[in-house]
Design goal:
With 192 residues, the chain is mainly α. The chain has seven helices and four strands; from the N terminus they run H-H-E-E-H-H-H-E-H-H-E. The strands form two sheets. The protein has a two-stranded antiparallel sheet. Strands 3-4 form a two-stranded antiparallel sheet. 28% of the residues are buried.
Length: 192
């Protein structure tokens, strides 16, 4: 018996969505148009939170609630990158336990407050890599992660300007975190 994902519409194979998209192209266009508006709103008025998993979920819910019925919910399926099937994310059953450790590390770092820029970049890199590997959502992890880290940086007196990096650089940092993630975070971090 083949087990089907509850995330996929059995008729179209497209992620179950709230915009009645029946193709990947329709879904991609609708998602982009709706999420960009929400992204701008969060950029201007960040959500208050404790820089923990509920905070990350709240950002995801805000960004994607017009598109996906599972917005703000931890995924229930295991994921790997389609173009890199050897690269797996944290198994769904371990998301809560791993998240507890990751966000406890952020708290233990005093939310990156009171440190110099180089130390900030080092610690932010570690948190970027850990949350990216956690990949707690079925869709929209990267955009949620970047907003979460942007807010964490602002809380600590730094600024992450993701426009200083290309999409290719962000993807490369996610695929090769040991060599590229620190370089990316150094490139986008400023103190202004």
């Amino acid at each position: 018996m083949v087990r089907r994902s509850t995330y996929l519409d059995p008729d179209t194979g497209v992620l179950v969505n709230l915009v009645s998209a029946r193709t990947e192209a329709e879904l991609s266009t609708a998602e982009h148009d709706l999420v960009i508006v929400r992204h701008i709103q969060l950029w201007e008025r960040p959500l208050a939170g404790a820089f923990d998993l509920p905070h990350l979920k709240a950002i995801h819910r805000f960004l994607f609630s017009d598109v996906y019925p599972f917005a703000g919910e931890a995924r229930t399926v295991d994921l790997c990158k389609v173009d890199d099937p050897g690269r797996h994310f944290v198994p769904a059953r371990l998301i809560s336990a791993c998240a507890a450790r990751i966000f406890a590390d952020i708290a233990a770092d005093n939310y990156l407050c009171g440190i110099d820029r180089d130390t900030f970049v080092d610690r932010m890199t570690e948190h970027f890599v850990a949350i990216n590997r956690l990949h707690p959502f079925r869709e929209g992890n990267g955009r949620t992660l970047r907003l979460f880290l942007h807010d964490l940086a602002a809380h600590a007196g730094f600024r992450l300007d993701w426009t200083r990096a290309t999409r290719a650089q962000v993807v490369a940092a996610c695929r090769d975190p040991l060599n590229r993630a620190r370089q990316l975070l150094d490139q986008v971090t400023s103190t202004d």
